[in-house]
Fold:
Amino acid sequence: SSTIPAPPKPAGSFCAGARVRVVLALPVGAGYDYRVAAGMTLSVGDFVKAPFGKRRLVGVVWGTATGDVAEEKVKDVAAIMPTPAMPGEQRRFLEWVAAYTLSPLGAVLKMALSVPEALEPPRESLVYVLNARSRWPEAPRLSPARRRIIALLDDAPAMRAADISHEAGCSASVLRGLVQAGIVRGYAAPVPERTFAVPDPDRPAPALNPDQRRGADVLAERTAADAFSVVVVDGVTGSGKTEVYFEAIAAALRRGRQVLVLLPEIALGAQWLRRFEARFAAAPAQWHSDLSAARRRETWRAVADGRARVVVGARSALFLPFCDLGLIVIDEEHDSAFKQEEGVIYHARDMAVVRGRIGGFPVIPVSATPSLETLVNIESGRYEQIALPTRHGDALLPDVGLIDMRKERPGAQKWISTELREAVARTLAAGEQALLFLNRRGYAPLTLCRTCGHRMQCPGCSAWLVEHRSRKRLLCHHCGFSMARPVRCPACDDEDTMVACGPGVERLAEEAREIFPDARIALASSDTLTGPQAAFDLVRRIEDHAVDIVIGTQVVAKGYHFALLTLVGVIDGDVGLMGGDLRAGERTYQLLSQVSGRAGRAARAGRVLMQTYLPDHPVMTALVNGDRAAFLSAEKDGRRATHMPPYGRLVALIVSGRDARTVDAMAQRLARSAPSSKTIQVLGPAPAPMAFLRGRHRRRLLLKARKEVRVQTVVAAWLRSAPAMAGVRVQIDVDPMSF
Ligand code: ADP
Ligand code: ZN
Structure:
């Protein structure tokens, strides 16, 4: 929709004494003037270190100096870093993101330089190599562990002790023994870069069905064209979308280009990684928040110099310094996890499309329930669509039924209705698995006093504290505050009157254990799946049928394929529909379709039972009738009539601070200078969706504009006319997710 700024002037060289503009990885400012030091030559894109106050910071040479700084104030660039220069494509991308999100360029660069250590030369450390066999002692004693190390070093140039122990799976003493025996020798050297296995695009792939074949051919053709395009893979759950976009990855690899696959949740990675390895005979490089600092450093460098060919990662992987990116896949493109809500506020799906346009390569959003934004782009012809309307093989889409909870008579069980209980029992009797889905972490979402009605609230946020019984604590899910579960009511001081209200997954599991004492039950939420390994183990246990009932939040709703899972029970289909958010229907529809999609993906037919108090809600009707088109067309009509996204533009301004009065004053100041015209309207100030968060009061103003308005220009002028007050922060969220 927006135009790309003109590319920077051709990269020139700057000799000693010349002045350059350096953008530092700092959350403020767009760049500072520096002088090229004696004996140094710099080019645009070079990574450098430069003095800033008392510190030396990393940055990138961005171009010619602005020249409006007095000569004696200009400092010398301190050092040039031994890293490939940042390609022009990535510099243009960062500029584009900064302009679109109205963020300082330095803040965007900071995301791209998330591992500043990666710019440093490799440090020296002790590395080990094999001695020539002629120098080994005669008849050396070679235990299996020793043999593994020898085999490892036979293939590798030189390795650190820690890597040897890790990869050979033995203790450090085995290596020491080999050194003492004269078989291995250690010396100090720069740590060798880790090698990344090269994926092979030409390994045998599964035979595709006709729909898949057609889709794969289109993707391969677009990928081979070396031109920008967006092709949406829109296929029902279980249609084989992954198999289809693997063909695009193969096509990009054949052309020697790098590939980025964005996934919303790294838990999704366990099965995905195995499938990727099976298809391409190599693991992709991974990028997510769970990596060790050393791994991040290695990966960043390998992406920059091209050793990493395929990267799979969370949204921040978009800012890695690819040297030859030729394809981006965004799996589950509708997922809100692609939206970063802190710092530079951006949507990775939208920015990926921009990255593809700048780089001149295809971008492939993938989903069973594409976002309205994406669907409207398909309708207008800007995006191409590949439809996969049926499940692969003989699998059918599951049958969806509603359970009207208004008719449920109160019985012994609180959360699992009689009908659902019987269905679970039948499923288990048939030797199959059931998933009970409830999108609420912990034991109970609310704790209150039976005597006085006092509710336990976070001291720093407008949110109830959630009981986590396994930890015997109450937690705030927004700021991390936690406290012991009180014995006395903090308000009326009565003893033993605090009661848990409503279910979370822990409480649901408790009930399921009472009803099905013999079933093997696994609990899956972000509290139990604390990392990729835990997710991997759980997936294995479900696949091996070591689990009968999975009870989980959205962490198990997405992507997984379990052949024996035939029943999905949704405990509270209405959770996401509460509150005034206009996008609630779309989001709930996407999540419930996705969780329903886990049922009956292989030979055995699947069934979904959805408990609801709103059986006539359009979301429920659409799910039961499997009528996505009708639901979407109603959603679109509503949005079109009110000029809401994707038919109009929104920008949210969040005003926050510790003092409520100052925050209100600032919000009023913004309201007074708010732009207004036939095509622009400002709503608010109103309390923000989280009106109090981490001790800060928050107000929101929403700028609503017609589609054709350049909102960035309007908002920038608006902010200039209402300078921020001390102690108040104004955050800008272009295209907010909730409205
Ligand atoms: P989706 O991502 O659309 O939900 P998947 O790509 O996970 O679907 O495919 C569902 C299942 O069907 C997977 O186990 C996958 O390996 C299998 N599958 C899909 N297409 C084929 C094919 N052409 N041949 C063999 N198995 C396939
Ligand atoms: Zn809190």
